[in-house]
Amino acid sequence: MVVRGLAALRILVVDDEEKIRDLVITYLLAEGYDAEGAADGRQAVRALSQKDFDLVILDLMMPGMDGWSVCREIRKSSDIPVIILTARGDEIDRVLGLELGADDYVVKPFSPRELVARVKAVLRRARKQEPEAAEGEKDIQHNGLRINRASRKVTVNGRLLQLTPKEYDLMLNLAGSPGRVFTREQLLENVWGYNFFGEARTVDTHITRLREKISRVPGARQYIHTVWGVGYKFEVEK
Q1: % of residues, the chain, pLDDT over 70
Q2: 233 has which bridge partners?
Q3: Is the pLDDT at 155 greater than 90, yes or no?
Q4: What are phi and psi of 119, to 5 degrees?
Q5: What is the pLDDT at residue 24?
Q6: Residue 217: which residues within 8 A CB-CB, separation 6 or more?
Q7: Do residues 231 and 181 touch, judged by C-beta distance below 8 A?
Q8: Which of 45, 76, 100, 133 ranks highest by number of CB atoms within 10 Å?
Q9: Which of 115, 91, 106 is nearest to 201 (CA)?
């Protein structure tokens, strides 16, 4: 994830409603951000492939390629912060957005000032994410599992796991403290940067995906264990 100094921070605003797009951009520019817009999902994906952005403000309901699809594309290769901006305020939509990797969720109609405050908060949290590993820092290794902190790659029995950025962070957080039990709220705080109140099931979803990817490796052990009524821990089966 690229996070530059404030004067150079670049934000992509994706919304098919021109008035909303222009309003958000105007407020962001007034705060000193470098902001530009995309009118639909395909334009957004194209812009993200051509430039480095520090944050995306993403509408969900767009013709053609919707916001959920854009978020999925982003999370295949990037941990760039995403704030969903949408008229859909149902709990299931919020949960789906967060499970896809969104960092915050703002429902229309909204206050532009509040949205800018959310942008600042998400960017602050992004700066607190784990720094790149120092040269020579040791990998984490546990019975067939290896986490290369410098390259952010995870292998099991020599096979590379195709993990999303959040899946990697979750595995690193658990494997870095073997035997320690983490509550869902602690994992949300450590991996996502703050508590998604009432959205702890996003942790369960990511744990399930991690387990599925590990289980596809022949001879792989079970590393992530459920502690019923509490949360999860990393422990290698004997």
Answers
A1: 82
A2: 181, 225
A3: yes
A4: -60, -50
A5: 95
A6: 156, 157, 159, 161
A7: yes
A8: 100
A9: 91
- In the block, tokens 């029995």 appear at 157
Distance CA 119, CA 100 (A): 19
Label residue 186 exposed, middle or buried (CB < 10 Å: 0-12, 13-18, 19+): middle
Q: What is the pLDDT of residue 91?
A: 62
Residues constituting the chain? 238
**Widest distance between CA atoms in the chain:** 60
Q: Could you tell me if 165 and 79 are in contact, meaning their C-beta atoms sit under 8 angstroms apart?
A: yes
How many CB atoms are located within 10 Å of the residue 1 CB?
Answer: 14
Q: What's the CA gap between 56 and 126, in Å, rounded?
A: 13
> Alpha-carbon distance 132 to 100, whole Å?
24
Mean pLDDT (whole number) for 110-129 = 83
Tokens 């509408």 belong to residue: 59
Bridge partners, 104 (sequence order): 83
What is the amino acid identity at position 3? Answer: V
Whether the Cβ atoms of residue 80 and residue 86 lie closer than 8 Å to each other: no
pTM above 0.70, yes or no: no
Confidence of residue 4 (pLDDT cuts 50, 70, 90): very low
Structure tokens at 211: 């387990």
Q: Which range has highest mean pLDDT (18-22, 67-71, 72-76, 203-207)?
A: 18-22
Whether 61 and 34 have beta carbons less than 8 Å apart is answered as: no
Percentage of residues in the chain having pLDDT higher than 90? 44
